[in-house]
Amino acid sequence: MFEPIRFNGPPVMNQSSADILRQPAEIAPAVQAFVAAVNDGSLPDVINAFLSDAIVNDQLVEYEGHHAIGVWARNDLLAQRTRMSVIRCRTRPTGVVLTVEMTGDFDGLGLPEPLVLSCYFSLSDRKIDQLIILRKDL
């Protein structure tokens, strides 16, 4: 299991890493590292948050392994200057479910405003083993 990290205080926009996380939340270090890496635009840190054979399923498109996850992260997250603002965190026995608001330079045509997603993280060996991302209807 992992040691949860607690973040307190209001969200601070235009700052990097964990500063954008809202309170109160317990977030596994690997999940915290992923959110921070996305917000900081760090591809190596995004990839390092995952096991080498991890799977990401983003809106029903699957990416497996570091190479595919890196291509997905570069094209769909970092190139779009995506920012993740955590709205809610739920700790599960095998991982974490985050509700996040996504902002960035992506084409929002046809997307709800705000864009809120559910991110289902499964963890193993202190890394992300699986991430499933689905749009959340409010």
What does this 3D model show about the protein?
This protein is an alpha+beta fold. Helices cover 23% and strands 41% of the residues. Strands 4-3-8-7-6-5 form a six-stranded mixed sheet. A two-stranded antiparallel ribbon has the order 1-2. The chain is globular and about 40 Å long. A hairpin with a 2-residue loop joins strand 5 and strand 6. It has one domain (5-135): Nuclear Transport Factor 2, Chain: A (Roll). Residues 1-25 have low confidence and may be disordered. The chain starts with a strand and ends with a strand.
Distance between the termini: 31 Å
Specify the overall morphology.
globular
The tally of helices reads 3
pLDDT < 50 stretches: 1-25
CATH topology call: Nuclear Transport Factor 2, Chain: A
User: Strand order across the biggest sheet?
Assistant: 4-3-8-7-6-5
Structural class estimated from helices and strands: alpha+beta
For the largest beta-sheet, the strand count, sense and barrel status come to: 6 strands, mixed
Question: Any idea how many domains?
Answer: 1
Q: Rg to the nearest angstrom? A: 14 Å
Secondary-structure element order, as H and E? EEHHEEHEEEE
- Mean pLDDT across all amino acids: 84
Give the second-level CATH assignment, the architecture.
Roll
The count of β-strands is 8
Helix content: 10-25%
By CATH reckoning, the class would read Alpha Beta
Strand content: 35-45%
